[in-house]
Please model this.
Amino acid sequence: MNTQDDSLKIKLKQLEEENLRLRSELAQKEAHVYLLNEREALINALIQNIPLAFWAFDENNVCFIQNNVSKFLLGDIAGTSVLGNSNPLVSSATAQILHVLSGKDIDYEQEYLNTDGRKYYYHNILSPFEISKENKGILVFNIDISERKLFEKALQESEKKFRRIYNNSTDGLLIHDRTGNIYDYNEEFRSITGWTHKDLLVKVNFFDLIIDDHKELVQKGIHELKNDDQVFVFETEIQDIVGIALPVEIKSKYIDYGENATILTIIRNISLRKRFESKLLNTVVETEEKERTRLAVDLHDEIGPLLSSMKMYLSLIKESTEESKKQYITSHVMELVKQAITSIREISNSLSPHLLTNYGLVAAITSNIQIVKDLLPVKFTNNCDVKRFPNNIEIVYYRIFKELLNNTLKHAEATQVKLALHYEKNVLTLRFEDNGKGFNVLEQMEERKTGLGLFSILSRVKAINGDYFIDSDKGKGVVFELHTKIEQLNL
Model:
């Protein structure tokens, strides 16, 4: 009996231990299931919150997972076959099935027209996965890269525009380092120097193009550029491929070029300007000499004979003893003196008009218009009646008006002149227009003698830092405008 009881007790104890073991295993399984559910929920939450379209389909081509972003993009395709789906993003992915299942990762960019009619760009990534040897599938990511593509396109367009401006600039543009090694240049610079593309980027050093007298100065000036606020400006000469020196103005500035700190140099061909300045200088000298010659001729022809006559009459007075004869000679001398005074006044007025000095520009112009009104009608409008300007400005404007009017009278065969003098926003504008036969401006600029009047005008414009516009051609008259920024005088 005792043996039987002991056996039952043993079996009961084994049952209790087995029960405890089963309970422990069940608790562990429940904990594992809970943890698995938690992890599944976490993974699902992560998938749903991925900020790009994510979906996957199995070896049967059925989509078994899809996040919210992809649902918005592709529609709800979970649980359906992806084969035959008309969405371009889905069909492009299924076209890669064989490549991906062979173990390759595939990525490509795709243009996509959304349902709202807008064009988008996506970067698609396809990757194979394997849970077990019998369970294969494909993971798909559709990443919206529209903003990046639009930025790239805008950048490319900007680069194209910059290149068009860069290559169509009338100034030579050059990018080089502080030692003169050339990184880039535009077509105008190549045209100026005559060097080939290969030579400019391989053989030629920028500083070697500068004439020897200025090379050290240019190197020093460019080397001292430390930041993009500084600009080095210098007039020099550069030598082309055959060694001919060309006058240029260079402006150099520190810039960032890619990853390099470099120098942008603008090279302006100033050959025409130098020739023009030389002509202007010669014209000024010739004009001054012409004025001196005219003054000498006026004094010789007008005052000289009068003084000679007075001298002769005065010698007769000295020799004469008759009172009546002395009175007669004296009256003639007085008349000659009056004529001499009148002539001197006219010559003086020609040199420095008293109307201009005392009453201003409008009065002096109006007086000249009255003198020629029977020869050539001039329609004059202005808003400067009571305004006075600096003396040098008034003199230059008056001389230019006189030169234009005289040219029209002598050469234009015009029947009418329109003249305007206006002062607005601190700018004094003179506009002269005739309906004469006109002339070729470029030809006049090139002619040494016939262009003297035009160069005289332009030299005066330059003297007051004015801006001018001239338009004429044979048979179309002349239009000339002069603009100068000045302050009127407070009188």
In short: The two ends are 147 Å apart (CA to CA). The mean pLDDT is 82. The chain has 16 helices and 15 strands. The longest strand covers residues 119-132.
